[in-house]
Amino acid sequence: MRKNIVAGNWKMNKNLQEGIALAKELNEALAADKPNCDVVICTPFIHLASVTPIVDSAVIGVGAENCADKVSGAYTGEVSAEMVASTGAQYVILGHSERRSYYGETVEILEEKVKLALANNLTPIFCIGEVLEERQAEKQNEVVAAQLASVFTLSAEDFGKIILAYEPVWAIGTGLTATPEQAQDIHAYIRSLIAEKYGNEVADNCSILYGGSCKPSNVKELFAKPDVDGGLIGGAALKVADFKGIIDAFK
Ligand code: 13P
After folding, report:
1. What residue ranges line ligand 1, CB within 6 angstroms?
2. pLDDT, tens digit, for every residue of 147-165?
3. Whose CA is nearest to atom 9 of ligand 1?
């Protein structure tokens, strides 16, 4: 069965002490009021080893926001999937639009990252989504189909281990959210591509999250759509009240 998931992407926010405090506060809030969905927080690399022991792993999963496309060796400044896994983290965001646009991550690089994440038992949260000009030219379907090439070389078994996140770039951090209908249309299209490639069962079981200016006041309608299985949350994941408000949309 497909899971409902709310995942936070802290991006490059919070120093170590602030990150630990945020994780503790979230852990307490969710211990007092158990969520009705899977919850994941994806933090900067340096937070991982400190955050994993302080959250209840039965309630909150922890992930990185990226990992290297190489196994190990002379790649100064990079962090491997194995290193991420060694902190106790279980997830890794891959293919975020900020990585694609600012750091030149291509379909091929992302294919390597996804494979290395899976080889180290990390669950990739693989992001896809179009920029505004592509949406205006009604090319969003083509764009996401091309981005899926990074994960469509996986075996059906491996594909079944990943989470997808549709994040229209024009909705990220802009306060502009896709309408529930826009999200449903493209999520259904993404699921149809998975069904074509891997069959209906794999497609039905794949969680497809929506990301882009999610907040407590707009997620209920988004999450109510049949092909929207939760959210990938940026800004609103940095305040426990907001993040929990989003998690509570599944109650
Ligand atoms: P915002 O929720 O801040 O728009 O960010 C979305 C995002 O990029 C999550 O990965």
Report:
1. 9, 96, 167, 172-173, 211-214, 232-236
2. 999 999 999 999 999 999 9
3. 234
Answer whether 68's CB lies under 8 Å from 74's CB: no
Per-residue pLDDT, 1:
82
Report DSSP letters for 88-115, one per residue: T--EEEES-HHHHHHS---HHHHHHHHH
**Residue 16: its pLDDT value, please?**
98
Average pLDDT over residues 30-37: 98
Distance CA 114, CA 68 (A): 10
| Catalytic, out of 105, 112, 134, 167 | 167
Per the annotation, the verdict on 112 as an active-site residue is no
pLDDT value at position 24? Answer: 98
Question: Is residue 242 within 8 Å of residue 215, measured between CB atoms?
Answer: yes
**CA 83 to centroid of ligand 1, rounded, Å:** 25
pLDDT digits (tens, 9 = 90+) for 102-138: 999 999 999 999 999 999 999 999 999 999 999 999 9
The rounded Å distance from CA 213 to ligand 1 centre is 6
251 with 36: CB under 8 angstroms? yes
- What spacing in Å lies between the alpha carbon of 207 and ligand 1's midpoint? 18
